[in-house]
Design goal:
Blueprint (H helix, E strand, L loop, with lengths): L1 E8 L3 E4 L1 H11 L3 E7 L5 E7 L3 H14 L13 H10 L2 E7 L2 E2 L5 E7 L4 E13 L2 E2 L1
Antiparallel strand pairs: 1-8, 2-7, 3-5, 3-8, 4-7, 5-6, 8-9
């Protein structure tokens, strides 16, 4: 089962999409399997990280800015090469185990859509693969 979600990203940020992924798992009826969460954009990504302290996301953005600063030597005409580098470093997807009909996330973990080139209208996909009550879906 494939689910598509849309979001508006007014600023560079990590947007918590854990609730949407949980919703997709619930709609799917899958009891045991995996959820693949995928971002189809080249200047955004997906990651799993702490969702209890918002300073973690701020620290990650700060570190990415320091690691991938905008540079005058970049040749990409849109001027967003740093965003492309950040997206490549973070990655375009995450996979989460589904066990007992629930996402198997750690106590402090959340799933984040990472926006590096705002403002944008974005989308991401959740693909659920697994078993519901004894049959493969």
């Amino acid at each position: 089962m494939l689910y598509e979600y849309r979001l508006e990203t007014p600023k560079r940020n990590f947007y918590d999409v854990t609730a949407q992924v949980r919703e997709a798992v619930g709609k799917s009826g899958v009891w045991d399997g995996i959820a693949v969460v995928y971002c189809p954009h080249t200047t955004a990504g997906m990651t799993i990280n702490e969702n209890a302290d918002p300073d973690v996301a701020r620290d990650l953005l700060f570190a990415l800015d320091k690691t991938f600063p905008d540079r005058p030597e970049f040749r990409h005409s849109e001027g967003n090469s740093a965003a492309h580098l950040m997206a490549s470093a973070i990655g375009s997807g995450v996979t989460v185990v589904i066990d007992g009909g629930r996402l198997l996330l750690g106590t402090w973990q959340g799933i984040y859509f990472c926006e590096f080139d705002p403002p944008r209208s974005r989308k991401f996909y959740v693909k659920i693969v697994g078993w519901a009550g004894g049959g493969c879906l």
